[in-house]
Known about the structure:
By secondary structure, the chain is of the alpha/beta class.
Amino acid sequence: MTSSWKPDPLDDAGAETTPEPAAPGPAPQLARTPYYLEGLNPEQRSAVEALDGPVLVLAGAGTGKTRVLTTRLAHLLTMRRAWPSQILSVTFTNKAAREMKERVSALTGAPVEGWWLGTFHAMAARLLRRHAELVGLKSNFTILDSDDQLRLIKQLLEAESIDAKRWPARLIHGVIERWKDKGLTPDRLKPDDAGDIAGGRLIDLYRAYQERLRTLNACDFGDLLLHNLAILQDNAEVLTEYHRRFRYILVDEYQDTNVAQYLWLRLLAQGHKNLCCVGDDDQSIYGWRGAEVGNILRFETDFPGAKVIRLERNYRSTDRILGAASGLIAQNRGRLGKTLFTESAGGEHVLVRNVWDGEEEARWVGDEIESLQRQKTRLSEIAILVRAGFQMREFEERLLTLGIPYRVVGGPRFYERVEIRDALAYLRVIAQPDDDLAFERIVNTPRRGLGAATLKTLHQLARGTRVPLTEAALRVVDTDEVGTRARNSLRTLMGDFQRWRDMIGRVPHPELARIVLDESGYTAMWQNEKSPDAAGRLENLKELVAAMEEFENLQGFLEHVSLVMENTATPGADMVNLMTLHSAKGLEFEHVFLPGWEEGLFPHQRALDETGIAGLEEERRLAYVGLTRAKLRAYISAAANRRIHGLWQAALPSRFLDELPEEHVEVRADPGLGGDLRETGPSFAFQTPRQSGFMARSRPVTLDGVAYAVAERPRPDKAFAAGDRVFHRKFGYGTVRTADNDKLTIGFDHAGEKKVMDSFVVPADQAG
């Protein structure tokens, strides 16, 4: 093709009165198969050529979904089924939209103009600007960002005399956001839907919020689709217009749609009914942000006569990886069903490794990465995928120790996170009162009424008298340079700092950090924060305190952090990828490490507690996503013990491990756990009659009505007492200082003082 596609007669201006346009013309007579169809497998080609009626393409991981989407669009244009502006193509990210446009232009040989292509929000905004007056807005309305939305809600809380401390604006905003994701306006809610939030006045607040937005000629992101639904449902002539306009609708990542997006698509697709949705029910992992896996599961019910095409031929992973992933996901009941396969048989088994604890896990992963390096594997082809953010610290520490460069994908490094930098700032001021940058960072965090005016006064005094800000603050509290409230707050804060400083040497530095975070109000600030990431921030703070236990004193820890922060990654360098499983969707690597497969961590206990079986199935889909990121080999690890936020916990191996088909898995145990599990198979859930080699004893545990036998460590023949010489396989020789039943405090000759369980040590004369 040599000429570009031009906008059709039905352009954005005056479309409401334009008659239904004809298709571009008869399809060209093709002498041979279009080149872009060559190389497609039969299922892919079927998905490309099924142009009429509703079509659901179940595209498994690594099955060429993007190629199918772009080729289908190019085929529609080449066959002259529609003008570009008669095709609505919806993606979930702007990056995906750009990539799709570039690929289609390359396939057709010309730029495509006038196309309705973009994210749900972008397409909804485009439609809303044309019909804004129908919902009480002007076409030049403003789309508010999250900060503006929170500021508006705070104003409403104040106007309604609602306690913003008990009912934070972020909590109110979160509930309203979820309602909008479900397509619910204030008039469609019942009093019970709001419960006692904001004293039972949340629905009234929602209504006032919407009215205020209209007054400001503004909307938030949720309104874009919510207003679209109102326009299309209440104005038959507008809906008819878009039924005429959109001959074909294509949707990517359909499994991630929420209710409002689903309703919007369903309304628009009732015209020509040529709706093609591409997605994978086995990769629906965003239920926590409103995604409804049921949208894709009931596609055939919503669109009778729909054609379902399964893309199961995988071009990414080995047969072993696919076999393990397929066996795992087959345990889910809420799925349409498909089994991935590859034409290249064999490959390395999925390696499952059981280790003593998280530190040993990080050491093992580091050793494996060094081995891969020696085999000339690029670091950028290696990924460590964790379930929870707090797991990253041990891997970051280990990679830094080994000198292996790494990048954290989808978020900052552990010590670069906001909550960690704030906590470190408190500790820096305690250790070094002259640290103005640290003091300035936390002087009003949490809020103490010490705003910009107070800080300006402190800076002026500090510069004028050449003293640090902390000294300036001590002087200001005895003058009238600042207001009474600010003066009292400063006096309290400076008194706190002096008291905390006096504890150095008398109180263990990890305990001092806990005291500082609690007494400063910083922990409470995040406890009262109702945003989705607040719980993760609290977990990170606990992990920070736990990390301090490895250092002799506060100064040594802060020096270590400074060295870590200096170790910055070079942009574009070859680095290991470290990220959460949620951030890994859509990516692929040759070697993937999946640590922390333990009950409570993965599947995560919060998911099980909040949503039960649905939560468990989403966690299993997340495990499936993790496995299918690997091209050559996947490495799974589970720790027998894990220190979570400073507390040692005996870990029950994840039920997912026992769901992996034995023929695709190689299981190894740390020799100290009682042998090599390869002899007995991967029965980590310990279901009778299969047993794991490292089990010395077992105790019954019931989960979801299923009985399991759980490994217990053998107890020593006699109790240890203070003064006993012992040996620990990790920390070496040491002397027992105190013994509290099975918990020992041991001064190790080289590792310092550690708290361990008595089952981890043997008398020194029995070592070796």
